[in-house]
Design a protein that fits this description.
It is a single chain. The protein is mostly helical. It is 73% helix and 0% strand. It is elongated, with a radius of gyration of 16 Å. The mean pLDDT is 88. InterPro entries: Haemerythrin_Fe_BS, Hemerythrin, Hemerythrin-like, Hemerythrin-like_sf, Hemerythrin_metal-bd. Belongs to the hemerythrin family. Keywords: Iron, Metal-binding, Oxygen transport, Transport.
Length: 139
């Protein structure tokens, strides 16, 4: 299957603030990977997971507000994906508490981000572009 993906410019969706937030998510996951590999494992991992959870909540709130503001027709499905990811992240946090977290778990996070950005996020960008709500350059 190969190594999990890292941030790449092909993940840009064309909305500057959202693109910046997506990059930050990948940066935080990279810090989590380093923490898992560190000697001071538990506290570093816990801090990275708290940081990831907090930023995910902020990012999802911003994205969902944007979709709500522009009456995105697939809002319910998009939010459901967010909620499922939050539940998966909570499960990963449970593993960290039991100290059985692995770098492979961060691969799941990265793969979800790539899939979500490439699918659900690009779909709402297409909606915003086609409705002429905002100008989003074609990538």
């Amino acid at each position: 299957m190969g190594p999990p993906p890292n941030w790449a410019d092909n993940l840009l969706i064309g909305i500057h603030e959202i693109d910046l937030q997506h990059r930050v998510l990948f940066d935080v996951v990279a810090r989590l990977e380093l923490a898992i590999s560190s000697d001071d494992k538990w506290s570093a991992v816990h801090f990275a997971l708290v940081e990831l959870t907090n930023f995910v909540n902020i990012h999802f709130a911003v994205e969902e507000a944007l979709l709500r503001l522009h009456d995105y027709p697939d809002m319910e499905a998009h939010v459901a994906e967010h909620r499922k990811f939050c539940a998966d992240l909570a499960e990963i946090k449970g593993h960290s508490i039991r100290e059985d977290i692995s770098v492979e778990m961060t691969a799941l996070v990265k793969n979800w981000l790539v899939s979500h950005i490439g699918g659900a996020d690009r779909a709402y960008v297409q909606h915003l572009r086609s409705a002429a709500i905002v100008y989003v350059p074609v990538s």
